[in-house]
Amino acid sequence: MKNSAIDDVLAQLRAAAVLAAGKAPSTAPSEAAGGVDFGAVLKSALDQVNGAQQEARRLAREFELGDPNTNLQDVMVSLQKANISFQTMVQVRNRLVAAYQDIMNMQV
């Protein structure tokens, strides 16, 4: 997985966190005016995290089977990238759940 893909995932997760906080994203004011589909952004981020994990598993499997084109450094870097993206997604989920609980506990 390329660094740009990880950067894209992190940017999308940051945008999702900003949207969850109720703020308009500062990087895309035109999208905020038109309405960003939060579900689509979140699904895209989840798909990218899933892709990173699948790529890491594939590289690990190839290394275990003795593929000469796969080295340990690439496997370890890929596994760490997948782990970081997963941990970031878990934190976003935790913040979303906390925000939902705060909203549900509000008195009307």
Rg (C-alpha, Å): 17 Å
Rounded to the nearest angstrom, the distance between the terminal CA atoms is 47 Å
- Spell out the helices and strands N to C: HHHH
- Helical percentage: over 70%
Quantity of strands, as a count? 0
Major pleated sheet: none
- Low-confidence blocks of residues: none
**Helix count, DSSP H or I runs of 4 or more residues:** 4
Instruction: Please state the oligomeric state of the protein chains shown.
Output: single chain
Can you describe this structure?
This protein has helices at residues 3-20, 29-34, 38-64, 72-104. The protein is mainly α. Helix 1 runs antiparallel to helix 3 (38-64) and helix 3 packs antiparallel against helix 4. The N and C termini lie far apart (47 Å). The mean pLDDT is 83.
In short:
Helix content is 78%, strand content 0%. It is mostly helical.
Core attributes:
108 residues, mainly alpha, 4 helices
List strands and helices in order, with pairings.
Elements: H1 3-20, H2 29-34, H3 38-64, H4 72-104
Helix pairs in contact: 1-3, 1-4, 3-4
